[in-house]
Amino acid sequence: MKQFLWGSATASYQCEGAWREDDKLESMWDHYLHEFQLENGDVASDFYHRFDEDLKMAKEGGQNSFRFSLSWPRIIKNPQGEVNEKGIAFYRSVLKACHHYGLVPNVTIYHWDLPQYLEAQGGWQNEETCQAFLDYAKVCFDYFHDLVDIWVTFNEPRWFIFNGYFIGNYPPGCHDVDMTIKGAFHVMYASALAVKVFKEGKYPGKIGIVHSYTPVNGIDETVETRIAMRYADNYCNNWVLDTAALGEIPIDMLGKLSSEGHDLSYMTPDKIAVIKHHTVDFIGLNYYARALVKPYTTGETTLIVNNKGKEGKGTSKTIVKGWFEQVSDPNTKKTEWDTEIYPQGLYEGILNAWHKYHLPIYITENGIGVSEDVTVEQVQDPYRIEFMKEHIEAILKAKEEGADVRGYYAWSAFDLYSWKNGCEKRYGLVAIDFEDQLKRKPKASYYWYKDFISKH
Ligand code: BGP
């Protein structure tokens, strides 16, 4: 049997920096954060220049895998699709360093940094972006297939689509249900197109998708709550996982959307057929928290994400009109950013996903975001150790009960830029002092993880 993968994860925009080096183009995140003068990833963790040191540290931390993403605007030079050889060379160096340090690379093709020229032409609203994604994915397979066995088409379609088109706190900053549905569909179609070209090209390895997994619990056992749970599960999970893993967009969800008057005519039979016939080999689940839900009562759809931490504590809210409402469990702990700490949700969620899809599962992200003082010799982070221990135990329990879980990735390998939260929301096993020459210092959790891995 293949070894279990113990790793940590990152994403291109969040860690690379070097935002316009070596002919990299502007991404939609560069554009948006610069336009609104918000904290950005221009430098981030400077992984672009320090990847060797970072990968060596992962290896010395006992890990045997590393998850990262490729930056589309670093690899494709212009709308004609010309390849940027410098971008290719960079990622080949990263991949070779992974192999040198005994880290199995787990490579995501799209972790949200769309080239801005595509966003300017409508981004995920425009069907042509799907074709552009397919061309870009093929470039990745052609140039890196000798070094990669685990491919991921998209990281968390729900998170970037809902935040970008529905909640409006991510680029392109829209609040529009129809744009959300269309963007979601185009991303799932693009993912299936990439799976198709991967299979037809007979590239080595396996291809999957990574989902922001939010297992759903209900406040009671009533029929009304069970119906609300189904709506919530469609909203949170099924439109990504059923579509990617089973090739089926949940039909009751389409029925509901259509009865609410949404035009779904762009979901044409030819695209549905691509989705149906090109499903993934595995699923990657990023787990931060579950959703506890009750039936919808009253009021407009309200979606609030706390990107302010302590200052915004308790402001998060999810009400989807006519579907469900999310409630906060008074008995569980929450982080400063309102994320519930609930390892049991991971255990139950893995078993559900396993019974439903029967595909290999990787836990591709799991971690806790905290503000920490990193000027000290070593960050003492018992809360992170406790968090990881409880979540890993939940995974191992689900595994013992039969779920085919093949790996665990801590989010994140080292401190990096946390989207709208900035760099001070820290998730890393290794601290980075953004004020002092980006010095790297392993936290206590890094050594705890190393020890845990060596015993398992
Ligand atoms: C996931 C993303 C990551 C990462 C993580 C933590 O949704 O895949 O990119 O950022 O969540 O979220 P945040 O940084 O918003 O706290």
What is the H level of CATH, i.e. the homologous superfamily? Glycosidases
Number of helices: 15
Shape: globular
Structural class: alpha/beta
Radius of gyration: 21 Å
Order of helices and strands: EHHHEHHEHHEHHEEHHHEEEEEHEHEEEH
Distance between the termini: 15 Å
Spatial order of the strands in the main sheet? 1-2-3-4-5-7-12-13
Oligomer: single chain
- Per CATH, the architecture is Alpha-Beta Barrel
Total number of distinct structural domains: 1
Q: Identify every distinct bound molecule in the structure, by name, code or SMILES.
A: 6-O-phosphono-beta-D-galactopyranose
Low-pLDDT runs of 5+ residues are none
State the helical fraction.
40-55%
Indicate the proportion of strand residues.
15-25%
Instruction: Please outline the major beta sheet.
Output: 8 strands, parallel, barrel
What is the CATH third-level topology name? TIM Barrel
SSE topology:
Layout: E1 5-9, H1 12-15, H2 28-35, H3 47-60, E2 65-69, H4 72-75, H5 85-100, E3 104-110, H6 116-119, H7 127-144, E4 150-155, H8 157-167, H9 177-200, E5 206-213, E6 216-218, H10 223-246, H11 251-259, H12 269-277, E7 282-287, E8 291-295, E9 302-304, E10 317-320, E11 324-327, H13 343-357, E12 361-365, H14 382-400, E13 405-411, E14 430-433, E15 439-442, H15 444-455
Parallel strand pairs: 1-2, 1-13, 2-3, 3-4, 4-5, 5-7, 6-8, 7-12, 12-13
Antiparallel strand pairs: 8-11, 9-10, 10-11, 14-15
